[in-house]
Amino acid sequence: MTLKVSKSEDCLIFYGLTPELTKFKDLYNSISEFMKIKQANDPSDRFNLILFLPDGPNYLDHFAFDTNLVLSMLKSVEKNISRASIAGGVFVATTFIIEVYKKISEKIFRLLIIVDDGAYAIPSQYLPALEELINKVKDMPFFIDVIYIGQPDYEERNRLNKLVNLTKGEFYEISSIDELDPLLMELSYKKKIIQPAFSKQEIRRIPEENQMFYINLADEPERVTDISTCSICFQQGNEGLIRCPSCQTVAHEVCWAQWAQTSHIGIPHVYRCHNCFNILKLDKNYINDVQAGKIPTIAELNKMKKKDIVDYLREIEAQSTPQVIQTEDPFASDVRAMIETKKEEPESSKKKSKKKKR
Ligand SMILES: [Zn+2]
Ligand SMILES: [Zn+2]
Q1: Which ligand neighbours the alpha carbon of 243 most closely?
Q2: Nearest ligand by distance to the CA of 275
Q3: Cα→Cα distances 55→81, 133, 264, 327, Å
Q4: Are residues 66 and 179 in the same domain?
C-alpha cells in the first residue's frame, strides 16, 4: 500500500496592515485575487485569516475551502482593524497551525504575513521564544512568508529574516502597495517551487531534538474492554483493542502498530488515525517489536482503505461553518509598553477618529 502524497496547502494570511497607512480596499482586492488564483490551481487549498481588532487577535477556528467566508469575515471587521503586533500574531498563528496539524495530515502550512511600518515590531526579548516555537514546527512542513510594505529598521528586518529563514520561507520588502499584486501572483504559484523539498514519497524523519514536541502533541489511545470489531482486520473480540480518543475508532493495538509503519509522522511510534487523521502514539518498543515481526499480527492491512483527506475536510466544513475566534495577544502589554516609551505612534488617536472618508 502506498500513501497518497498531496501538496495541498493550508494558508493562513496574517493581515498586519495599519488602517492609517494602507487602504483596506486595496488589500481586500489583492487577498481576494490571491485566494482565487491559488484555489484555481489547487481546489484542495484552504484559507484562514488572522488580524488584530481592539480586543486582540481574531481568526477563524477552521481553515476554509470557502474563500467567500474568509472575505466576509475580513469585510465585517473592516472598521475595527487595529495595529497588529507581529510577535503576538506569529505566536497565535503558529499555535493555531499546530492544533490543525494535530488533526489532519498531508498538508503544507503557510503563514503569509503582510505587514507595514505601522505594525508593532517584535520585541527583541521575545525573539528566542518565537525561534524556539518555529524551530519545532518547521518539520510539519510549515513555512512563513513575509511581505513588508514600507521599510523596517535594521533590527526588525533581521528579526523577520531569522523567522523566515528557519522555515525556508521568503522575506519580501516592497515600497508600495502597487507592488503587492504581482508579488502575490508569484507567491500563489510558490508551492511548485518548493515542491521538491516536501513531495518526497518517503516520510520525512523528524530530527531527534524535535521529537519530544510531537510525542507530547500525540494522544494516547484508550483501552477497550467490551467486545468490538477492529477497524483494520475486521475481527471481533475484546482483547488487545484500543480506541482513538478523537473519533472513537477501534483497532487492535497490533494492527495499528503495523499501520504506523506507513502512516507515522516522522517518528516511528507516532502515527495518524486512519479514520480521523488525529495524531496518536503507541509504545516505542512495542512498535519496534511488531514491525520487526517479533509479535504475530492479525492484520490484513490491504483490506483497509484510508479516507481521502480532502473529502474528509469538505465533510467537516459542510457540517460546521468556521467561526471567528477572539483570543489574547500573549505579548500585548509588553509590546505596547515598549512602543509607548519609544513614542512611535504613527498618528495620534485623535487624528484617527477624525479620519476623512476615502
Ligand atoms: Zn485488528
Ligand atoms: Zn480517529
Answers
A1: 2
A2: 2
A3: 10, 24, 39, 8
A4: yes
Same domain, 279 and 193: no
Query: How many angstroms is it from 340 CA to the middle of ligand 1?
Result: 62
CA of 93 from ligand 1 middle (Å) equals 38
Q: Are residues 280 and 339 in the same domain?
A: no
In a domain, 1, yes or no: no
Compute the distance from residue 233 Cα to the ligand 1 centre, in Å: 4
Nearest residue to 82 via CA among 336, 281, 297, 275: 336
Q: Which residues have CB less than 5 Å away from ligand 2 (the ion)?
A: 244, 246-247, 249, 273, 275-276, 278
Q: Model's pTM, two decimal places?
A: 0.82
Any domain includes 320: no
In a shared domain, residues 272 and 338: no
Give the amino acid at 336.
Answer: R
Supply the DSSP string of 97-151, one letter for each residue. HHHHHHH--S-EEEEEEEEETTSBPPPGGGHHHHHHHHHHHTTTTEEEEEEEES-
DSSP 64: B
* CA 294 to ligand 1 centroid distance, Å: 17
Q: Which domain covers residue 259, as residue numbers?
A: 218-314
Number of domains in the chain: 2
Digit-by-digit pLDDT tens for the chain (358 residues) are: 333 334 689 999 999 999 888 888 888 999 999 999 999 988 999 999 999 999 999 999 999 999 999 999 999 999 999 999 999 999 999 999 999 999 887 788 999 999 999 999 999 999 999 999 998 888 888 999 999 999 999 999 999 999 999 988 999 999 999 999 999 998 887 554 344 344 444 567 888 888 999 999 999 999 999 999 998 888 888 899 999 999 999 999 999 998 888 889 999 999 999 889 999 999 999 999 888 877 766 655 555 667 788 888 898 899 888 899 888 888 777 766 665 555 444 444 444 444 444 4
Query: What CATH number did the domain enclosing 110 receive?
Result: 3.40.50.410
Instruction: Let me know whether 307 and 263 are in one domain.
Output: yes
Q: Do residue 195 and residue 245 come from a single domain?
A: no
- Structural contact between residues 278 and 217, judged by C-beta atoms closer than 8 angstroms: no
| Residues 116 and 229 grouped into a single domain | no
Q: Record the cell numbers describing residue 264, joined without a space.
A: 507515522
Alpha carbon of 254 to ligand 1 centroid (Å): 7
Residues 13 and 134 in one domain: yes
